[in-house]
Amino acid sequence: MSKQSIALASLPPEVRKALRQLGENLGLARQRRRETQHAWAQRLGVSIPTLIRLEHGGPGVAIGTYATALWLMGRAGALPDVADPALDRGALEMNIRDAKKRSVRSQASIDKRLSSPSPPAPAKPPKR
């Protein structure tokens, strides 16, 4: 068995479910646009069996094919948000824990500083 087969066989259930939902959504989008499988597959540059696997959420379908299908729907702009570092809560929580470990202030000092009202903002200079 190849490495890819092992990876595909051991997908977490949540990942399988998410791929299945993505495939179903892409299939619905194609149908709502009244596109045949043949026409959609041609536009994607894949065979009809590959399109069918994509619409069933097949994990072996190339991510580029999924991305192209999203592009055909006008949704390719959503792809960067999938792994946006600003939305990566696990990494953000690790950063906060690391910062607390490095902190030279005591927890009481931090709590007091966070609970005190912030000073007023300085006035902006007039526009010319």
Structure notes:
This protein has helices at 3-9, 13-32, 37-44, 48-55, 63-72, 79-82, 89-102, 107-115. The protein is elongated, with a radius of gyration of 24 Å. The protein has 128 residues and is mainly α. Helix 3 crosses helix 4 (48-55). The mean pLDDT is 85. It has 8 helices and no strands. It folds into 2 domains: 3-78, 434 Repressor (Amino-terminal Domain), CATH 1.10.260.40; 85-114, no CATH class.
CATH hierarchy class name of the largest domain? Mainly Alpha
Query: The CATH topology of the largest domain is what?
Result: 434 Repressor (Amino-terminal Domain)
Share of residues in helices: 55-70%
H/I helix tally: 8
Given as residue ranges, the uncertain stretches (5+ residues, pLDDT < 50) are none
What is the strand tally? 0
Shape assignment: elongated
Distance between the termini: 73 Å
Give the total of domains: 2
How would a textbook summarize the main sheet? Answer: none
Structural class assignment: mainly alpha
Rg, nearest Å: 24 Å
Overall pLDDT confidence: 85
Give the name of the CATH superfamily of the largest domain: lambda repressor-like DNA-binding domains
CATH architectural group of the largest domain: Orthogonal Bundle
- Compressed to H and E, one letter per element, the order equals HHHHHHHH
| % residues in beta strands | under 5%
